């Protein structure tokens, strides 16, 4: 059973009491120690082409997949032949396999790889549980740079550049890094200093309607190159009342973004990340939309997981990561060697 991301990880107020916090601390120490040991013992494989890892410092949604898509477009525009490598979370194929949107389903490849393959028809997207085998397969198929979607804590592939994506939205009392707690006491995958020490750059992802990042957050992420990008809708939400739904890391951010984009949101249903669209869930969404005399609207990531007969009944709302300082981005990508 998939569980939702704990909202209390990301808020300054309403966090668990001191007793529960103390009980979770030993588990956090054990998690951090196991992560550090796995990284230290790693023997990374060199696939023969540069690898850009786009990872996370935290659990829960940060928007790294739109950042991967934006980097793939930028590299392609610059004359490179990028390929995207994903573990294929939620899919049953072990790989390495090149994703074919005409043949594969989200149940086979996972939702994010299928979404990327549909959005980037000129870019190969590979799924592989064994990241090293996937990187070698992508290089052998002609890629001259590999974008590894997630994997900042995975030491199996030699990385040329390591980027970490951080949620930059701090309003309504939210704090994207929590209070510095490592899972399960907080959202961090490892201690912040350890994660930043291996990063070449941090991509601070802001919503389209937020003017500037929080200065305290910028200070907390100092050290690596800091880039900012905005998550902007590719189209306006459909007219008329809508029932929105999302099964992503932070579904409350989808609801907020829809309202900011002018959507007439009659209701919103939140589900755990990568939640399967079971008949019971779809029936409940159908009833909710009928009660409001509204359409159904969801993220592209959620839309690709819908059964084929449901896709015509639900509108997908695509978003795109847009970098602010493209010169700084190009300077970072300019470090990549060409073979």
TrEMBL record:
GO terms for cellular component: plasma membrane. Its EC number is 2.7.1.130. Pathway: Glycolipid biosynthesis; lipid IV(A) biosynthesis; lipid IV(A) from (3R)-3-hydroxytetradecanoyl-[acyl-carrier-protein] and UDP-N-acetyl-alpha-D-glucosamine: step 6/6. ATP binds at residues 58-65. It catalyses: a lipid A disaccharide + ATP = a lipid IVA + ADP + H(+). Pfam families: LpxK. One of its GO terms (molecular function) is lipid-A 4'-kinase activity. Keywords: ATP-binding, Kinase, Lipid A biosynthesis, Lipid biosynthesis, Lipid metabolism, Nucleotide-binding, Transferase. GO terms for biological process: lipid A biosynthetic process; lipopolysaccharide core region biosynthetic process. Belongs to the LpxK family. HAMAP family: LpxK (MF_00409). Transfers the gamma-phosphate of ATP to the 4'-position of a tetraacyldisaccharide 1-phosphate intermediate (termed DS-1-P) to form tetraacyldisaccharide 1,4'-bis-phosphate (lipid IVA). This is Tetraacyldisaccharide 4'-kinase. It comes from Phenylobacterium parvum. The lineage of its organism: Bacteria, Pseudomonadati, Pseudomonadota, Alphaproteobacteria, Caulobacterales. The gene is lpxK.
């Amino acid at each position: 059973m998939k569980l939702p991301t704990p909202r209390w990880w990301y808020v300054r107020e309403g966090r668990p009491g001191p007793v529960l916090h103390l009980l979770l601390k030993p588990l956090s120490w054990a998690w951090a120690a196991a992560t550090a040991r796995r990284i230290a013992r790693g023997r990374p494989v060199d696939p023969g082409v540069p690898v850009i890892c786009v990872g996370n410092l935290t659990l829960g949604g940060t928007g790294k997949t739109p950042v991967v898509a934006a980097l793939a477009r930028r590299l392609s525009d610059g004359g490179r032949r990028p390929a995207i490598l994903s573990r294929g979370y939620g899919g049953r194929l072990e790989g390495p396999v090149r994703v074919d949107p005409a043949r594969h389903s989200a149940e086979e490849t996972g939702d994010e790889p299928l979404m990327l393959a549909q959005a980037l028809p000129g870019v190969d997207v590979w799924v592989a549980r064994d990241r090293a085998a996937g990187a070698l397969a992508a290089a052998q198929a002609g890629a001259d740079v590999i974008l590894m979607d997630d994997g900042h804590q995975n030491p199996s592939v030699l990385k040329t550049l390591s980027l970490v994506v951080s949620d930059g939205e701090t309003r309504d009392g939210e704090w994207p890094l929590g209070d510095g707690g490592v899972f399960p006491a907080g959202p961090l995958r490892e201690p912040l200093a350890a994660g930043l020490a291996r990063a070449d750059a941090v991509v601070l992802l802001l919503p389209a309607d937020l003017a500037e990042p929080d200065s305290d957050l910028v200070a907390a992420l100092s050290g690596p190159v800091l880039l900012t990008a905005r998550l902007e809708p590719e189209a306006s939400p459909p007219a008329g009342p809508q029932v929105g739904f999302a099964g992503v890391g932070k579904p409350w951010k989808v609801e907020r973004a829809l309202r900011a984009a002018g959507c007439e949101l009659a209701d919103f249903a939140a589900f755990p990340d990568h939640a399967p669209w079971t008949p019971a869930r779809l029936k409940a969404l159908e009833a909710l939309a009928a009660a409001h005399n509204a359409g159904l609207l969801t993220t592209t990531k959620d839309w690709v997981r819908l059964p084929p007969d449901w896709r015509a009944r639900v509108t997908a709302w695509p978003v795109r990561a847009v970098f602010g300082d493209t010169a700084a981005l190009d300077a970072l990508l300019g470090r990549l060697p060409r073979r």
